[in-house]
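User: My instructor asked us to take a sequence, write out its structure as tokens, and then describe one feature of it. I'm not sure where to start. Here is the sequence I was given:
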Amino acid sequence: FHTLGINLPDIDRSHVEQLSLSAKQKQSTATGTPDALSALKWYTRSALARFISAQTENENKLAEQLNLTIGRTKSYRCIMVNVNKAEDDTPLSIYMDLLGPHNKIHQSPDETAIHAFNILSGMASARFEAAALGQNGMGLYKIWQQMPADAPLIFVDEDNQDEFAATLEEKKFSSTMVEYFKSLSYNKMVIFPSESAIVNGRSRWAWLEFNKETYQLVSVLDSGENGSMVENVVGNPAEQAGQYMVGVLVGVDVSLWSVAAFSLEMADYNKILKAAEKFAKGMSNNFGVGVKIGDLAIGTDIGGSPAASYGRGPKAELSPHDSKLTNNILGFGNGYNDGVAYYFKKAK
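Assistant: Let's start with the prediction itself. The structure tokens for your sequence are:
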């Protein structure tokens, strides 16, 4: 089941309150148990609204702090929420895919202010996308939390992407991941963990993708989405009196309906934003040779523990020596540091 939003407008705080009130009124007057299609529509659309409202508030605040004029006149916000179930005995999975999340900057005092906006807004969006899916939402930050503190990061760009893709292929990584790195654009750079996390008994990977020219960034999951995921959001479908959609989606019932009833205003918004800022600053302080995930001050994610289980199954590992730092990457690190420093100077 897919919910695709194209050219989605901003939602400011006043309109979030209006939408939340309207949604609660409609739910309170609903009769009977909603069918699977209704539950899916409500859940996915409320997730989109939560993400957009948080992103809108954050971007407007950043623009004010950095003295920028922003607006999506030619850059359209495009987001998909995908609900799928592969087999009867597998958990229901939900993904948020940020297909076009970036704002357009029309006026800026200098280029560093643009870089600062793109870095901080991207870091925040990587957290918002997980929180928007509800208490069990998982994104890059929660996955990276499962890494050993001394696991180095690997830097990949056009100078070493072929070598890195060949390494993934040799070590039997998924075709999705191999093809991603084979087709990595010349202006992109990836920060990739050297060890996987174990989620529901499987190795899972997540990484940061940067545009080396604009410093726009997105988090990427090993399944290919630019975003976040939920597994086991409605528990074990086999143990529930679930609804059925074309024999594929099982267990979409009142449990998912209750998740959709969350407020459209993201809980713990300020704490989530502070955690994103802390992560961006930690990355800046440690950009260079031998960066370790444990030094990035990832902290604890807001919104409760994910329903997925961690720590079961064999971990996959990559040697950081498989990918050497290039002059391009070192230059990018200097620009990243400048952008983050600029933001914190203005945000005082």
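For the description part of your assignment, you could build on this observation: The radius of gyration is 20 Å. Try explaining in your own words what that tells you about the chain.
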